[in-house]
Design a protein that fits this description.
Blueprint lengths: L2 H17 L3 E4 L5 E3 L3 E7 L7 E12 L18 E6 L16 E7 L7 E13 L4 E14 L1
Parallel strand pairs: 2-8
Antiparallel strand pairs: 1-3, 3-6, 4-5, 4-7, 7-8
Length: 149
């Protein structure tokens, strides 16, 4: 196989994977949440033409050990922290949909009482199988929350 063919196949796979990528639509980055309170995490998935079999999502929170939120690391090497939700992901399309929003699902989760105040990583881990061959797809997204008392 020619190098150009390998490059084209790799680019196509990367583009396909990017097209399946979810986003944390709510809460916004740098939102505040009180320890012990409920928050709504809205997960959006793009509309696409290939088939997808959603497996699960995990939503977790992990306090940062720095005081400046802009330095809160995107990935915690010690794990995801407190798991707020672990289970099925079944995004739905809004009907009617005047704003042309993507398929989405919202989860109401509780920030654990006693969570350290200050910046924290809210992470979303997403698993699915995509395409006719059910290729495994795994990703992690995150935002920074500011935890208050």
């Amino acid at each position: 196989m020619k190098i150009s063919s390998l490059f084209a196949a790799g680019a196509l796979y990367a583009a396909s994977a990017f097209a399946q990528s979810v986003t944390i639509a709510a809460p916004p980055n740098m939102a505040t949440a009180a320890a012990g309170s409920d928050i709504v995490v809205q997960v959006d998935r793009p509309n696409f033409t290939s088939s997808v079999n959603e497996v699960a999502v995990v939503i977790a929170v992990f306090p940062c050990f720095v005081e400046e939120p802009e330095f809160c690391p995107a990935f915690q090497r010690d794990g995801v922290g407190a798991i707020l939700y672990s289970g099925p992901f079944d995004p739905y399309e809004l009907v009617p949909n005047p704003n042309n929003e993507p398929p989405q699902e919202s989860f109401t989760v509780k920030i654990p009482p006693g969570t350290k105040t200050g910046p924290a990583v809210l992470s979303l881990t997403h698993w699915s199988f995509i395409g006719a061959n059910n290729e495994y797809f795994f990703e992690t997204k995150n935002i920074t929350l500011v935890i208050t008392e």
